[in-house]
Predict the 3D structure of the following.
Amino acid sequence: MQLLLLVPYATILALQLTPINANPAPNAKVNALVSRAAGTRNDPHIVDMPCTDMEDVCEADCIAILCHGKDPVMQKLAGTADAKKKQKEDNYRRSGAYFVPFDEPLDMQKKRGISVPSGLIPGAPLFNSAEETTYESTQQGGTDCIIFPVPRDQQTLQGGNMQNQFGRVDEALRNIPDGQFFKQRFSFLNSDTPHCLALQQTPPDTSICHKEKKNKWGFDMKKFAFVMDQVAKNPRTFTNLFGGYKRKRSDGTYEPIEEAQEVQDE
Protein backbone atom coordinates (compact mmCIF):
# COMPACT_ATOMS: atom_id res chain seq x y z
CA MET A 1 0.00 0.00 0.00
CA GLN A 2 1.40 3.38 -0.94
CA LEU A 3 1.50 6.45 1.28
CA LEU A 4 -0.41 9.56 0.29
CA LEU A 5 1.56 11.88 -1.96
CA LEU A 6 1.06 15.61 -1.57
CA VAL A 7 0.91 18.09 -4.43
CA PRO A 8 4.15 19.98 -5.13
CA TYR A 9 3.77 23.42 -3.56
CA ALA A 10 4.32 25.28 -6.85
CA THR A 11 1.63 23.23 -8.55
CA ILE A 12 -0.85 23.95 -5.79
CA LEU A 13 -0.25 27.68 -6.01
CA ALA A 14 -0.89 27.59 -9.75
CA LEU A 15 -4.46 26.32 -9.28
CA GLN A 16 -7.05 29.08 -9.43
CA LEU A 17 -10.44 28.45 -7.92
CA THR A 18 -13.58 30.50 -7.43
CA PRO A 19 -14.92 31.91 -4.20
CA ILE A 20 -17.34 29.67 -2.35
CA ASN A 21 -21.08 29.88 -2.76
CA ALA A 22 -22.35 28.07 0.32
CA ASN A 23 -25.96 28.13 -0.85
CA PRO A 24 -25.93 27.24 -4.55
CA ALA A 25 -28.96 27.48 -6.74
CA PRO A 26 -30.55 24.05 -7.34
CA ASN A 27 -29.81 24.06 -11.05
CA ALA A 28 -26.78 26.31 -11.38
CA LYS A 29 -25.90 26.82 -15.02
CA VAL A 30 -22.37 26.37 -16.28
CA ASN A 31 -20.52 29.36 -17.63
CA ALA A 32 -19.18 28.00 -20.91
CA LEU A 33 -15.89 29.85 -20.65
CA VAL A 34 -15.03 32.17 -17.81
CA SER A 35 -11.97 33.91 -19.19
CA ARG A 36 -10.09 34.52 -22.40
CA ALA A 37 -6.75 32.74 -22.33
CA ALA A 38 -3.96 31.76 -24.69
CA GLY A 39 -4.69 28.09 -24.09
CA THR A 40 -1.07 27.30 -23.24
CA ARG A 41 0.13 25.37 -20.21
CA ASN A 42 1.12 28.65 -18.54
CA ASP A 43 -2.10 30.43 -19.55
CA PRO A 44 -4.78 27.72 -19.72
CA HIS A 45 -8.48 28.18 -20.30
CA ILE A 46 -10.63 27.91 -17.17
CA VAL A 47 -13.37 25.27 -17.25
CA ASP A 48 -16.16 25.84 -14.75
CA MET A 49 -17.13 22.82 -12.65
CA PRO A 50 -20.20 23.66 -10.53
CA CYS A 51 -20.45 20.98 -7.86
CA THR A 52 -24.18 21.25 -7.20
CA ASP A 53 -25.71 17.73 -7.30
CA MET A 54 -22.35 16.14 -8.12
CA GLU A 55 -20.40 16.71 -4.92
CA ASP A 56 -18.92 13.19 -4.91
CA VAL A 57 -17.43 13.62 -8.38
CA CYS A 58 -15.94 16.98 -7.41
CA GLU A 59 -14.53 15.52 -4.20
CA ALA A 60 -12.84 12.72 -6.17
CA ASP A 61 -11.21 15.24 -8.51
CA CYS A 62 -10.16 17.54 -5.65
CA ILE A 63 -8.65 14.68 -3.63
CA ALA A 64 -6.64 13.60 -6.67
CA ILE A 65 -5.21 17.12 -6.99
CA LEU A 66 -4.80 18.00 -3.32
CA CYS A 67 -3.63 14.68 -1.88
CA HIS A 68 -2.06 12.77 -4.78
CA GLY A 69 -0.41 15.40 -6.96
CA LYS A 70 -2.68 15.20 -9.99
CA ASP A 71 -1.81 18.02 -12.38
CA PRO A 72 -4.83 20.36 -12.54
CA VAL A 73 -3.81 21.47 -16.05
CA MET A 74 -4.82 19.16 -18.91
CA GLN A 75 -4.55 19.34 -22.71
CA LYS A 76 -7.50 18.64 -24.96
CA LEU A 77 -6.94 15.93 -27.56
CA ALA A 78 -6.15 17.05 -31.11
CA GLY A 79 -6.21 15.44 -34.55
CA THR A 80 -8.86 13.93 -36.77
CA ALA A 81 -12.14 12.74 -35.32
CA ASP A 82 -11.04 9.12 -35.79
CA ALA A 83 -7.65 9.75 -34.17
CA LYS A 84 -9.24 11.45 -31.16
CA LYS A 85 -11.77 8.65 -30.79
CA LYS A 86 -9.00 6.03 -30.83
CA GLN A 87 -6.87 7.87 -28.29
CA LYS A 88 -9.87 8.38 -26.03
CA GLU A 89 -10.64 4.66 -26.18
CA ASP A 90 -6.98 3.84 -25.48
CA ASN A 91 -6.96 6.18 -22.48
CA TYR A 92 -10.16 4.61 -21.17
CA ARG A 93 -8.57 1.17 -21.32
CA ARG A 94 -5.20 2.22 -19.86
CA SER A 95 -6.83 3.98 -16.90
CA GLY A 96 -8.59 0.75 -15.95
CA ALA A 97 -12.06 2.31 -16.15
CA TYR A 98 -12.63 0.08 -19.19
CA PHE A 99 -12.98 -2.92 -16.85
CA VAL A 100 -15.82 -1.23 -14.90
CA PRO A 101 -14.02 -2.45 -11.75
CA PHE A 102 -16.43 -0.93 -9.22
CA ASP A 103 -19.43 -2.69 -10.75
CA GLU A 104 -18.01 -6.22 -10.93
CA PRO A 105 -18.92 -9.14 -8.65
CA LEU A 106 -17.26 -8.97 -5.24
CA ASP A 107 -14.98 -11.93 -5.93
CA MET A 108 -13.56 -10.20 -9.02
CA GLN A 109 -13.16 -6.92 -7.13
CA LYS A 110 -11.14 -8.81 -4.53
CA LYS A 111 -8.89 -10.32 -7.21
CA ARG A 112 -8.29 -6.88 -8.68
CA GLY A 113 -7.59 -5.28 -5.30
CA ILE A 114 -10.64 -3.06 -5.71
CA SER A 115 -13.20 -2.13 -3.07
CA VAL A 116 -16.32 0.02 -2.96
CA PRO A 117 -17.96 1.87 -0.05
CA SER A 118 -20.12 -0.31 2.18
CA GLY A 119 -22.32 0.22 5.22
CA LEU A 120 -23.75 3.41 3.74
CA ILE A 121 -26.70 5.24 5.23
CA PRO A 122 -30.17 4.35 3.87
CA GLY A 123 -30.94 6.05 0.59
CA ALA A 124 -27.32 6.31 -0.52
CA PRO A 125 -26.69 5.87 -4.26
CA LEU A 126 -24.55 3.10 -5.72
CA PHE A 127 -20.89 4.06 -5.98
CA ASN A 128 -20.18 1.79 -8.94
CA SER A 129 -18.95 4.08 -11.74
CA ALA A 130 -15.26 4.90 -12.22
CA GLU A 131 -14.40 8.61 -12.11
CA GLU A 132 -11.25 9.18 -14.16
CA THR A 133 -9.70 12.20 -12.46
CA THR A 134 -7.50 12.78 -15.50
CA TYR A 135 -10.00 12.73 -18.34
CA GLU A 136 -9.79 10.24 -21.19
CA SER A 137 -10.44 13.14 -23.59
CA THR A 138 -7.07 14.70 -22.70
CA GLN A 139 -3.45 13.98 -23.56
CA GLN A 140 -2.79 13.23 -19.89
CA GLY A 141 -5.49 10.56 -19.65
CA GLY A 142 -4.85 6.85 -19.41
CA THR A 143 -1.80 5.41 -17.65
CA ASP A 144 -1.51 6.28 -13.95
CA CYS A 145 -4.94 7.93 -13.91
CA ILE A 146 -6.47 7.89 -10.41
CA ILE A 147 -9.99 6.48 -10.37
CA PHE A 148 -12.65 6.65 -7.65
CA PRO A 149 -16.08 4.99 -7.31
CA VAL A 150 -18.85 7.58 -7.78
CA PRO A 151 -22.59 7.54 -8.56
CA ARG A 152 -23.28 7.14 -12.26
CA ASP A 153 -25.91 9.89 -12.40
CA GLN A 154 -23.39 12.41 -11.08
CA GLN A 155 -21.01 11.47 -13.88
CA THR A 156 -23.80 11.95 -16.41
CA LEU A 157 -24.33 15.47 -15.08
CA GLN A 158 -20.60 16.15 -15.14
CA GLY A 159 -20.35 14.86 -18.70
CA GLY A 160 -23.05 17.27 -19.83
CA ASN A 161 -21.25 20.18 -18.21
CA MET A 162 -17.94 19.28 -19.82
CA GLN A 163 -19.52 18.66 -23.21
CA ASN A 164 -21.06 22.12 -23.17
CA GLN A 165 -17.58 23.54 -22.81
CA PHE A 166 -15.55 21.16 -24.96
CA GLY A 167 -18.03 20.71 -27.80
CA ARG A 168 -19.18 17.41 -29.24
CA VAL A 169 -16.86 15.36 -31.41
CA ASP A 170 -19.22 15.58 -34.39
CA GLU A 171 -20.10 19.27 -34.02
CA ALA A 172 -18.26 22.50 -34.59
CA LEU A 173 -15.84 23.04 -31.74
CA ARG A 174 -17.03 25.24 -29.00
CA ASN A 175 -14.95 27.13 -26.50
CA ILE A 176 -11.68 25.21 -26.22
CA PRO A 177 -9.79 24.45 -29.45
CA ASP A 178 -8.18 21.04 -29.89
CA GLY A 179 -4.71 20.76 -28.44
CA GLN A 180 -5.10 23.68 -26.05
CA PHE A 181 -4.73 23.55 -22.27
CA PHE A 182 -7.37 24.05 -19.59
CA LYS A 183 -7.88 23.61 -15.87
CA GLN A 184 -10.99 23.17 -13.77
CA ARG A 185 -12.52 25.77 -11.51
CA PHE A 186 -14.60 24.11 -8.80
CA SER A 187 -17.51 26.28 -7.70
CA PHE A 188 -20.73 26.11 -5.66
CA LEU A 189 -18.84 24.41 -2.84
CA ASN A 190 -20.47 23.49 0.47
CA SER A 191 -20.13 21.26 3.53
CA ASP A 192 -20.36 18.19 1.27
CA THR A 193 -17.17 19.22 -0.57
CA PRO A 194 -14.59 19.60 2.25
CA HIS A 195 -11.60 18.59 0.11
CA CYS A 196 -12.54 21.09 -2.59
CA LEU A 197 -12.92 23.75 0.10
CA ALA A 198 -9.45 22.87 1.37
CA LEU A 199 -8.07 23.01 -2.16
CA GLN A 200 -9.38 26.53 -2.73
CA GLN A 201 -7.74 27.95 0.39
CA THR A 202 -4.63 30.12 0.08
CA PRO A 203 -2.45 28.18 0.48
CA PRO A 204 -4.44 24.96 0.00
CA ASP A 205 -4.91 23.03 3.24
CA THR A 206 -3.23 19.69 2.64
CA SER A 207 -3.67 18.65 6.29
CA ILE A 208 -7.13 17.34 5.37
CA CYS A 209 -5.38 14.60 3.39
CA HIS A 210 -4.31 13.03 6.70
CA LYS A 211 -7.68 13.35 8.48
CA GLU A 212 -10.80 11.24 8.34
CA LYS A 213 -13.53 13.24 6.60
CA LYS A 214 -16.68 11.20 6.12
CA ASN A 215 -19.22 12.44 3.61
CA LYS A 216 -22.98 12.53 4.09
CA TRP A 217 -23.16 8.90 2.95
CA GLY A 218 -20.95 7.74 5.83
CA PHE A 219 -17.53 7.10 4.27
CA ASP A 220 -14.29 8.92 3.47
CA MET A 221 -13.69 9.17 -0.29
CA LYS A 222 -9.90 9.20 0.28
CA LYS A 223 -10.02 5.48 1.06
CA PHE A 224 -11.11 4.65 -2.48
CA ALA A 225 -8.38 6.13 -4.69
CA PHE A 226 -7.06 3.48 -7.10
CA VAL A 227 -4.48 3.29 -9.90
CA MET A 228 -4.25 0.33 -12.28
CA ASP A 229 -0.96 -1.56 -11.98
CA GLN A 230 1.18 -1.37 -15.11
CA VAL A 231 2.44 -4.95 -14.76
CA ALA A 232 -0.04 -6.90 -16.86
CA LYS A 233 -1.81 -9.64 -14.92
CA ASN A 234 -4.94 -11.68 -15.49
CA PRO A 235 -7.09 -10.17 -14.18
CA ARG A 236 -5.63 -6.66 -14.22
CA THR A 237 -4.99 -5.41 -10.69
CA PHE A 238 -5.13 -2.03 -8.96
CA THR A 239 -3.26 -0.33 -6.11
CA ASN A 240 -5.13 1.58 -3.42
CA LEU A 241 -3.33 4.89 -2.81
CA PHE A 242 -4.77 5.47 0.64
CA GLY A 243 -1.92 5.39 3.15
CA GLY A 244 -3.86 5.71 6.39
CA TYR A 245 -4.55 8.66 8.65
CA LYS A 246 -1.71 10.58 10.27
CA ARG A 247 -1.15 12.91 13.22
CA LYS A 248 0.96 16.04 12.86
CA ARG A 249 4.06 16.11 15.08
CA SER A 250 5.46 19.27 16.68
CA ASP A 251 8.18 19.39 14.00
CA GLY A 252 5.60 19.54 11.22
CA THR A 253 5.98 15.93 10.04
CA TYR A 254 3.24 13.30 10.29
CA GLU A 255 3.03 9.97 12.08
CA PRO A 256 0.53 7.18 11.38
CA ILE A 257 -2.39 6.69 13.77
CA GLU A 258 -5.03 4.02 14.16
CA GLU A 259 -7.49 4.10 11.26
CA ALA A 260 -10.51 4.18 13.56
CA GLN A 261 -9.29 7.34 15.28
CA GLU A 262 -10.20 10.58 13.55
CA VAL A 263 -7.56 13.30 13.50
CA GLN A 264 -9.15 16.44 14.87
CA ASP A 265 -8.80 19.78 13.13
CA GLU A 266 -5.89 21.77 14.47
In short: Strands lie at 45-50, 73-75, 129-132, 147-150, 181-187, 226-228, 238-240, 246-248, 254-256. Residues 9-256 form one domain.
